[in-house]
Amino acid sequence: MQNNFFYSKKEKGFTIIEVIVAIFILAVAILGSYYAFAQMAGLTTIIASRLTAAYLAQEGIELVRSVRDTNWLNGLAWNSQISSCSSGCEIDYNLDSVMVYSDRFLNVDNSNFYSYSVGTPTKFKRRITITAPAADTLGVSVQIQWQDRGSPYTFSAEEYLYNWR
């Protein structure tokens, strides 16, 4: 005769240890997913700001090109106003002059145009530096600065403009 004292019935269901292990695995999976999504949300705002900074840097180069072309149309020296930006300057699409750099934030208006004069202040600053590495050549360097989540960021773009006329 077999002693069935310890094995009298087979219990159906889970033991408390199995339940605790399953809850731990689920908690780790849920917290890991939450952390990954939180990181992606933070990176999304930084990437969006970096894209805006790239556009603002390109716009800065285009503004200098516009001043050069306007000088040609008005019969002025091609580098008039912009050759004095070796220590940095600000150029605005709706102003007629080049301003000395004063570390101001750009504003965005209701039409989503960035300028220094009107609109809501943004987190972006734009510094345009122009050098003359050779005759009939201007080196245009644009630096965009901003802060996201307490960390400073910088985006730079550089191009050369020529007196090809």
Count of the domains:
1
Structural class: alpha+beta
Mean of residue pLDDT?
Answer: 87
Low-confidence stretches: none
Global outline: rod-shaped
Number of helices: 1
Q: Largest sheet, order of strands side by side?
A: 4-3-5
The rounded distance between the terminal residues' Cα atoms is 112 Å
Fraction of residues in H or I helices: 25-40%
Architecture overview:
This protein is of the alpha+beta class. It has one domain. 35% of the residues lie in helices and 28% in strands. The protein has one helix at 16-73, and strands at 89-91, 98-100, 107-108, 114-115, 120-121, 125-134, 137-148, 151-162. The strands form 3 sheets. Strands 4-3-5 form a 3-stranded antiparallel beta sheet, with no helix packed on it. A 3-stranded antiparallel beta sheet has the order 6-7-8. A two-stranded antiparallel ribbon has the order 1-2. The mean pLDDT is 87.
Task: Summarize the entry for a quick read.
This protein is 35% helix and 28% strand.
What key phrases describe this protein's structure?
alpha+beta; 3-stranded antiparallel sheet; rod-shaped
Give the SSE map.
Blueprint: H1 16-73, E1 89-91, E2 98-100, E3 107-108, E4 114-115, E5 120-121, E6 125-134, E7 137-148, E8 151-162
Antiparallel strand pairs: 1-2, 3-4, 3-5, 6-7, 7-8
